[in-house]
Amino acid sequence: MDFVAHCISEFNFFSGLFLNIISLVVLFKLSPEKQNKNYKYLMAIQFIAGIECSICQEGDLRLIVALTFVLILFIITYTVIIIYYKRCKHFLTEHENILTQKTLKLNKQLLLILFLQSVTPLIIVGLPTCTFLFIIAIKKVNSTDNYGILIHSLLTVTPTINSFLYLILPERNRKGIRQFFIKIWKFVCCKKNVVHIQVGIQLEMAHRGHNVIIE
Fold this sequence. Notes:
mainly alpha
């Protein structure tokens, strides 16, 4: 059990930092200008809490603060999801005939993100926690420390999974990320080509200079 928790912590450190930082960039660079600001700020706080959970080690006071934020955000997120989901569903039903396909598609993607982000903690943390409580109730184990460590590790992974869902589900985000990596690839390739050309010119000039000296 300790080995599994250790692997989860190691995975969350690297992937959590990368995914949550990228999610913050995408959130403020690629999000539609008319996107709800409250939703944007709520997502930003989640990603920042995810970064904090990835960096802090077990027993660190900052981790306790970060996890407290995460738990509070779960409650806020569920409340926002219920309210927003009902309003959005009602709006889409009433105005389906006058909305463009692009607008409908964006709203459906947003609803899917909110739904999956609400389900993620229930599956990743809720099920192990229920199992943990059941084991305690039937007193099948002498020590529950290992199970507590595992649940703690799973809780810190939840923000990372949410940031991953935010990055891959909306088509706009996928295109933006793909274009970003294409630009990096082209930049690296151009740099290599420039270096190769410069080296070739220098070699050619050196070769010609050598020939002149010989003559």
